[in-house]
Amino acid sequence: MRTINEWTQDDLRITILHHNDKYTLKIESGLLEQNYKLRDGQMDMAKVNNHLDQNFVYAIKSIFSRMDNAKTNLLSKSEDLEDFPEII
């Protein structure tokens, strides 16, 4: 897998990867990550920055917010499961 480009936009780390005639648009926020796979020719990767407008960034941040809420809920449930019986 080869990194084509990477940059930061609105606190998001964006990376474009190329592998086997497919591109992956990887967007990271903290420990969370979203990946969008595109076939070669679906989008001009040289101009992908132009396609990432504020509407797209808003949608991505909204998904990250829901992902973070789901992660928080999962971790709070796992804390309940850590009640081990007392061993004497």
Q: Total domains, how many? A: 1
What's the pLDDT, averaged over the residues? 88
Contiguous helical run count: 2
Radius of gyration: 18 Å
Please identify the oligomeric state. Answer: single chain
Global morphology: elongated
Helix content class: 25-40%
Class by helix and strand content?
alpha+beta
Strand element count: 4
End-to-end separation in angstroms reads: 53 Å
Q: Tell me about the biggest sheet?
A: 4 strands, antiparallel
**Strand-residue fraction?**
35-45%
The largest sheet has its strands arranged as 1-2-3-4
Fold and architecture overview:
With 88 residues, this protein is an alpha+beta fold. It has one domain. Helices cover 36% and strands 36% of the residues. The chain has two helices and four strands. It has helices at residues 48-51, 54-81, and strands at residues 2-9, 12-19, 22-29, 32-39. A four-stranded antiparallel beta sheet has the order 1-2-3-4, with helices on one face. 3% of the residues are buried.
Task: Please give the structural blueprint.
Elements: E1 2-9, E2 12-19, E3 22-29, E4 32-39, H1 48-51, H2 54-81
Antiparallel strand pairs: 1-2, 2-3, 3-4
Main attributes of the structure:
88 residues; alpha+beta; 2 helices; 36% helix; elongated
Short description:
This protein is an alpha+beta fold and 88 residues long. It is 36% helix and 36% strand. A hairpin with a 2-residue loop joins strand 3 and strand 4 (32-39).
